[in-house]
Amino acid sequence: MLALLLFLVPFVSGLTIQGRVVNNQQPAISYLTGTSQFQYNYNAAYLPIFVNGRAMDGLLVRVQDLSNSSDPYSVGPSKIAVTVRQGPFNPNHFSYSMVTQSHVILQPSSPEDSEGIEDPRLAYDEKTNTYYLMYTAVAKNSEGGVNAYLSLATCHSDPTRAESWTRRGYLFPDLKWSKSGALLIRDQGPSFLFYGDSSLVPGIQVATTNDLLHYTYNSSVWLPVRPSSWDSLLVEAGPMPLPLSDGNYLFLYNSARKGFPSPKPNWDVQYNVGWVILDHNNPIVILQRSESPLFSPSLQWETGVGASVLGLTPNVVFLEGWQRYPGSDSNDHFIAYLGGADSVVGVAEIIVKIDGNKYFVDAKYH
Fold it and tell me: Is residue 10 predicted with pLDDT exceeding 60?
């Protein structure tokens, strides 16, 4: 049982993590480049695809369109669409199949998600060949606003087809606001769901599960916001944690702080990406936490400011999907998929270097 989730972070020595944007620093999926029929494409989850004896790399992408052409910040409900990487892996050129309505796998279909299906995060269980997709279902409430519910869908066959997915409903139906679930599947003991966007409590929370379908809620704070820091306004789960070569896990998280004015009315928030190292024996124990962001908005498609870019939500980098670097034998080398300004999908490279037992993380663009 998770009796206490707020851990002291000990000093650990010897690891360097570097992050850099690849694909020539350009978005891989964008309405402006003709790679999607949707105006806004962002917050992508990595989707490993195994169909007809072939293994392919795909993405599940949150997509939206404007609901009012005279208001650049007025959008309709979100959907989740699939796209597949084309051709051999090339870090300087990521090409994906066109994102169209025919590639939508989840979309609003009932009052329970009438206002949108958002922010996919995926975990794949190799032993059972099962995909576990965490997403946010947004529904109207009786007060005229909306509620957000962390929800689950599963798939045992071709994940690129909408009919392959089974919706399992809300994970915490008694909560009026829950989001952002990153599932760590373990062979022994309970599996862990790192979730939340700091709305219910000032930090990320952890739930446990023994069957990957039903989750035990815990109200304690696991990873708190830090006052006067780049993660002071909120912290929010990134993608599922992945193991490093030393057995410990790297967990990426999203964060925000105020104080960054933008063209969007009443919006002065900046989103960044941070990281923590989790103990391999007990993944709710935090060994180290980043002192500075791994990624911050700097390129135009991340800041969303400029004549030739989209900027639904300025000053945002947001990470919900990653994979091991294709063709690399290292457990410390990754490709990550960044949402920029809630408008496009970019690609980044993350390199981890371990020296002894200390962890350093740095981000560089190229």
Answer: no
